[in-house]
Predict the structure of Major facilitator superfamily (MFS) profile domain-containing protein.
Amino acid sequence: MNSTLSLNRPVRNYTLGSFKNPKLIEARPSRHQLCSHLIDFSKLKWFGNVNSRTGSSVQQQLRDYSGESRRITSRRIRVSSNDAQFGSFPNKGGTESSSFAEFITSERVKVVAMLALSLALCNADRVVMSVAIVPLSLAHGWSRSFSGIVQSSFLWGYLISPIAGGTLVDYYGGKAVMACGVTLWSLATFLTPWAAENSLLALLFARAMLGVAEGVALPCMNNMIARWFPSTERARAVAMAMAGFQLGNAIGLTLSPILMSQGGIFGPFVIFGLCGFLWVLVWLSATSSTPDRSPQISKYELDYIMNKRQKSHAVESKPKTKMIPPFRRLLSKMPTWSLIVANAMHSWGFFVILSWMPIYFNSVHHVDLRQAAWFSAVPWCMMALTGYLAGLWSDTLIRNGTSITLTRKIMQSIGFVGPAVALVGLTAAKTPSTASAWLSLAVGLKAFSHCGFLVNLLEIAPHYSGVLHGLSNTAGTFAAIFGTVGAGFFVELVGSFQGFLLLTSLLYFLAALFYIKFSTGERVNFDESDS
């Protein structure tokens, strides 16, 4: 679709000095060349030697030539909407903002939509066990503490892969590593019924392999967003991708009981595994690792991405990452530790809520499994919505002049202090509806963390975002294992979930203070020359 533009620009008074700059007309090349013969200097030989004494004749010729330019530039010119942004040329430096219509129909949104789908499958595959653990525990006579061990087997594998996976992502790119990861975790999910029928050891191994494969998902997301989105859109892009991540929880928790009632206890594992294989086929055929390699991207969108992104933060403009990253230098900076602490606390709260809330509603509020799954799913839908709104607000703050550092601290403070207060309210809930409301508030505000530490990974170390995410994810996995297993033992010893929720609330407050103290939105120098 084309749009008609009228260029009513003031006419320049061309002088001899203007021909020293070949850019007489500041417009980027397109298939519609604007007055291209005006800047073809091979046709200007009739000017003579501009350094000769015949200056008066040259000035007369320049006046004639300027008069011709007035007649040409006064015409109406049709420009493709792919090369102009809804009625305006990109200004110098490409600093114009992308409109919503262009953004939502762009190639980069297609990429982030595919990432959101993969993260939805990622969480759906892991959350199935949170529902299946109830009938499995009854069938096998497992205690609460042993049920926690079975659920944590996913995290054993998740502990191994983030650092190695992040390094592979930085070296090979997010597209290839994500395809391998989804293929492996879909296979592990698909084979879980067979493993459970054979032995407990096989079941634990299948769940651990699921964790190994899913450990690359978030580093791949960060890598692809860093390549495809300028800094003023990254919070929104992360929020969109993480919305899929949270909806995967809701999908897994709500569909699993339905699929179990129709196809047996292992029906969801088979369905979600097959969906993963289908996703891989679409991902490999419809997406590209970087914008400049995409055959579908428009020339306008490619120029917009490359111009808006800060050159020093462009992943592909730097030499390929070393296979062995500088771990010592990464761990020597306090901003790195602020991300590690934030990820650890985020994972603690995330996996405790994800793994234990169906059992919490079933045992504390005495609702059946299907109702417990629905009560547990509502907060994740809230998280998907608030996460996107947080992304919009974060990007707006930065565009309006708020520093990146302050913006990240605001987002992270809401993402930790909000859940801390809401979990205190959850301990006093008397009905399932009230408990679900407090839990929805806690999980919804937790989404602001995605615009805090999760985007901050791209800002302090864009060239090492994959391995840095792997380091923080490893710490987060340790915390998740400790929280998931510890919750089971804590409930057995104390006799209630309330005490563990209060402990989690306290840890949220402490982690928020640590992040506010030591985090930064500026790029941190991890180069050898800085040591």
